[in-house]
Amino acid sequence: MVQKAKILLVDDRPENLLALEAILSALDQTLVRASSGEEALKALLTDDFAVILLDVQMPGMDGFETAAHIKRRERTRDIPIIFLTAINHGPHHTFRGYAAGAVDYISKPFDPWVLRAKVSVFVELYMKNCQLREQAALLRLQLEGDGKDAGEQKESAGLLAELSARLAAVEEQAEALSKQLSDESTDAAAVATAAHLERKLTGLRRALDALEPGTGGASPLPSRN
């Protein structure tokens, strides 16, 4: 059974968390609540998340400060963050969100379908990365040691080809998403989202290329999504 991705929802208002759960329940993933920045950071200590939906206006540690802590941690700095805000102070306020490491910045009230679609992109990418890492680990085991017979070598080559094909499919999806974003909008959200996907896929492709025979052995794929 494929393990579900975890999505972290951070908001100090219970009714907002309930609304987010209602919107994202159709994705059939694991939704984790956090009612403060401190609670979110505690959840991130033990669990891996595909994406974080983070409210900007919270008492105590606000969304910007919470994001700064997330980006300082090696374990969590690559997790995509989507900021949600009920206010709009103009481009400077929005820029602060992107400077804090957000891949998107959405003002309330937002279109539920749009939010669900944006989140689903990062969930899909996370799940694909998990599958690639699992297959890469299996491939590394098959590539280790000397004296493999012809059948084992053929099996390893076949698995490597399948792994490369899966990554190519993700790259194709990311390219289509990037084109869609550029066609629909030229704002910083589109640029940030496309750049994030490109960085992750470039790292995966580089790691996969290192598994090819004659490149010096099997290098591990990135541990984060």
Automatic annotation (TrEMBL):
A GO biological process this protein is involved in?
phosphorelay signal transduction system
Record carries keyword Coiled coil: yes
Keyword Phosphoprotein in annotation = yes
- Response regulatory domain span: 6-123
Q: List-wise, which residues carry 4-aspartylphosphate?
A: D55
Where does the record place a coiled coil? Answer: 160-187
Q: Which InterPro entries match?
A: Bact_response_regulator (IPR050595), CheY-like_superfamily (IPR011006), Sig_transdc_resp-reg_receiver (IPR001789)
Alphabetically list the UniProt keywords: Coiled coil, Phosphoprotein
Q: Where on the tree of life does the source sit, at the highest rank? A: Bacteria
UniProt protein name: Response regulator receiver domain-containing protein
Q: Look up and give the organism this protein is from.
A: Streptomyces prasinopilosus
